[in-house]
DNA sequence: CGCTTCGGTTGACAAAAGCAACAATTTACA
DNA sequence: TGTAAATTGTTGCTTTTGTCAACCGAAGCG
């Protein structure tokens, strides 16, 4: 049955992620913080609410994490002029630099796992990943927005 | 660069997993507990240490989680006769039943995400997943054992 | 206007996870 | 053999992470 096979992959890839995410052990940022920095940089000027929807977080919790990131000088908030309730989030220059370091470190961990694989196998791997993204993307977005 | 593409997939699939794992919200077991039940059933008579290595858990933490699972009558421990430090872990009949329910529920969530996809696309999806497992399996095992 | 919704903050609390000290075995090896 | 070192697991304590509900000010809307 297909569901079984997908769950098998899920169990497998959960452990792959565990290994590849170990880079955060070396960092002063947690995995969540890293993901937030990444997303804030990708979606410049996004609101806390955007992040809540994207990552499915509790708003109280996120509020605190953002406060911490701000106190660490990685993120800055500007109140939106159109809607004074909303906050627009940006990385500071420091934050951008931190993120670049994190990305480099993350790449490093990923490569340590992958660069022993022959070139052609790596290509197959990437193709397979892109295939999965292609097929599942619409459902992720769909589920997220409700 | 390949690492970037893999990290993109990782970010993507992290969110897929978040959605597909929501089944645990409906359960009296947490995600970790579910994974433990699954692994104890798969690897009957395994020790706490086996689980620590497999899931990379703190041993103190695992000890408590197992105690809880035992108090819930899902897991039973037998002291190993060869090595009196070691404990052999098994599911109880209740635990096996709970696990079966969890698996059914999990399948349900996975299907809810996947069954809108045309049959042939589903097949491509599974093929891609199997491809990834094939390519990465040895590295997961390798990393885990050290 | 007054009511409701929305975006975000705060306090209090619960759950999850990590750390270090410890006990009981087992293993290694002098 | 005996004893130090390593292994397996437990416990107390702390920190981190996450949840819940009450709340505030702003915006939408009849």
TrEMBL record, chains A, B:
HTH marR-type domain residues: 1-134
Record Gene3D superfamilies: Winged helix-like DNA-binding domain superfamily/Winged helix DNA-binding domain (1.10.10.10)
InterPro entries cross-referenced by the UniProt entry: HTH_MarR-typ, WH-like_DNA-bd_sf, WH_DNA-bd_sf
Record keywords: DNA-binding, Transcription, Transcription regulation
Pfam families hit by this protein: MarR
Coiled-coil region list: none
Keyword DNA-binding: yes
PANTHER family: TRANSCRIPTIONAL REGULATOR, MARR, TRANSCRIPTIONAL REPRESSOR OF EMRAB OPERON
Name by which UniProt lists this protein: MarR family winged helix-turn-helix transcriptional regulator
